[in-house]
Structure formats: C-alpha cells, structure tokens
Amino acid sequence: MIGRLVRLSSWEIPDVDTYVKWIQNPEIARLTHMVGRPISRREIDEEFSPYFRGQSTVQHWAIIDRKTNELIGKIHWEECLKGPDVYELGIVIGDSERWRIGYGAEACLLAGELLFRELKAHKVMYLCAEYNTPMIELGIRGGFKEEGRIRDRFYVNGRYWDGIWLGLLKTEYDSFTEYLTAQLGRT
C-alpha cells in the first residue's frame, strides 16, 4: 500500500528492535498502550511472538518513509469483540520530529482503504488518552465521533487521564478520506 509520503509493508522481526527503542522513549510510550511503567524487551517480544508464528488476530504493518525508505512507525488493527466487522486501530510514529507532518494521517488513510474497501469493515475505532489532543483532533476533524470515555484509564506523569474512544462508520469514511486527502495535499 503506497501513499505520497509513506508506504505500508509487512512487519518483520528486525523491525521489533526499532519498536523497542520507540517504546522505551517515555515521550512516545505515553501516546501508546504501553504507558505507566517501563516495558521490557521480553514483554515486547511476547507481544509479537504470536504474530510471527501466524497465531495472532492482530495485523501489524510497518510505516515506511517513501523518501528515505526508513521505518518510521507501526500501525496495527484487529477485528474486535465489539461486533462483526468492527476493527480497533493503533498507530505510533516513532520520531517526534515526524509528528504533525502527515505521516500518521496518510498511514491511517491507507489502512482505512484496506479495512473499509477490502475487508468490508463496518466500523473502525481507536482509544487514546485525553492528553493526546493531536490524535483526537485529527479523528474528529476527519469525521470520527467520540463514542465513549473510560475514566482514569491512563496513569501518566503522576496523574490519571481518561481514555477516549473514537469511531468511524463505513458510511462516514468517504468524508474522512476527503478531509485527509485535503490535509495531505497542503503538506
């Protein structure tokens, strides 16, 4: 899957080394599900082990910068128990200097094409901490709706933060692609 800024490719065992560096950076870890305490290499290997053995329901994809051919992020999804054809999405861009440039937005757009068009998803959703305002704003501006709040879901920097669920239905996806395409066209 190829965009203007990034391409999505298969997630490979050597990519885990880069992911470990990202997750061990507190600034990046606090924007993922790996918050609250340091995560060991062993725990990360255990997370990916079922995937590499073909026994995981989670699909992991590498986000590659098209200009440099460098691994800059990871996006993943899995069909969840919240209903048939409902997918939960997660993304991380591993270098804060690459945030707010459009890499993550384009990766989400490419993932959406696969999820909504090929896998026939009814809904895509994601959970993020309330302090992750760039991700919340991106979703809401693109048509995602706030669907719920999990009180005190994340503990970061000595306090609890709510988790916010955002969701996008297949019927809303076209407006999301129009929004992201317009945003990416300006970068």
From TrEMBL:
- Name the UniProt key words of this record, in alphabetical order: Transferase
Is Transferase found in the keyword set? yes
What terms describe the molecular function in GO for this protein?
A: acyltransferase activity, transferring groups other than amino-acyl groups
Q: What InterPro entries does the annotation carry?
A: Acyl_CoA_acyltransferase (IPR016181), GNAT_dom (IPR000182)
What Pfam families does its record include?
Acetyltransf_3 (PF13302)
Q: Where is the N-acetyltransferase domain?
A: 7-145
| PANTHER family registered for this protein in UniProt | GNAT-FAMILY ACETYLTRANSFERASE, SPERMIDINE N(1)-ACETYLTRANSFERASE
* Protein name as it appears in the record: N-acetyltransferase
Species name:
Sulfobacillus benefaciens
